[in-house]
Amino acid sequence: AIAAIVTAIYLYTPHQRTVRPLVYEEEEVQIQGVVSDSIADSLMHVVPTKPQGYTIVKDTIVNDIPLKIFIPRNAVPELVMGNINKTDSSIILGAMAADFGPDKRKGWIVAGGFILKGELISRSKSKYGFCAINDGEITLGNALKTELFEKCITDSGDFFRQYPLVENSAPLYSRKRNRTICRALCERAGEFIVVESLTTERFTDFANALAQLDIDNAITLMCSSMSVRWAIDKQGRRYETGAMEQEFPEVVNFIVWRSK
């Protein structure tokens, strides 16, 4: 069981080191459709097809930390709860989101404030970082109180809390000293991506690497060797890690991107 741990966050000034540049895939633009001839005016009509969602998968190294980067395309984010079908073809990227653990009185609970489609699941403020999703739009923040919490309730949105890693392009210091596989939900130049370390790292070192990757804001996702993450790229290849087949308590939750 994974218990929630309260962490104090401080600003951390990183050492400057060489960063291997991250080159994003140049996307191909294709128009596909059905062409038909009109006898009346001999015009050619094109009926466009619906774009299929997929994930761009990239590898890079920052400060000697190997990182894997997942960039969703043509997809909408949302929170889901429970042991969902991870082979659902509509999901092109998914990862465990909020921590959860056992409570003596309530059984298994989600750690930190959690809202699912407007339903209040947990009001705890055990972590300062948060992710709010309203109308398919993500907002990341670092605050004990935020009006977005109530907005997610009134507007049937999603909300969860985690540890903040980067705020306004500055890495944040963490007192957590243990090393783990690190995973983060990140905002970079207005887009939201998932970044994870391929080696066990401390949160502070991981946050430093994210900041040097030009990440503007970031919070952790569930971080452990068992934490589940999967993705599907443009060629239909699957990228999986963690205990994909394990049945977790029903409070297990994921942030997923579904193809539009």
Keywords:
7% helix; five-stranded antiparallel beta sheet; 260 residues; globular; mainly beta; eight-stranded antiparallel beta sheet; disordered N terminus; 48% strand; 22 strands
Outline the structure in words:
This protein has 260 residues and is mainly beta. It has 2 helices and 22 strands. The strands form 5 sheets. It has an 8-stranded antiparallel sheet. The longest helix has 10 residues. The chain is globular and about 45 Å long. The N terminus is likely disordered.
Order of helices and strands: EEEEEEEEEEEEEHEEEEEHEEEE
Largest sheet: 8 strands, antiparallel
Q: What is the strand content?
A: over 45%
State the end-to-end distance: 34 Å
Radius of gyration, whole Å? 20 Å
Taking pLDDT < 50 over at least 5 consecutive residues as the criterion, the unreliable ranges are 1-45
In short:
The chain has two helices and 22 strands. By secondary structure, it is mainly β.
How are the SSEs placed, and which strands pair?
Elements: E1 9-11, E2 33-37, E3 44-48, E4 54-62, E5 65-73, E6 75-81, E7 91-96, E8 100-103, E9 107-110, E10 114-116, E11 119-122, E12 129-134, E13 137-142, H1 147-154, E14 158-162, E15 164-167, E16 170-174, E17 180-188, E18 191-201, H2 203-212, E19 217-220, E20 229-232, E21 238-241, E22 253-259
Antiparallel strand pairs: 1-16, 2-3, 4-5, 5-18, 6-22, 7-20, 7-22, 8-9, 10-11, 10-14, 12-13, 12-14, 15-16, 15-19, 17-18, 17-19, 20-21
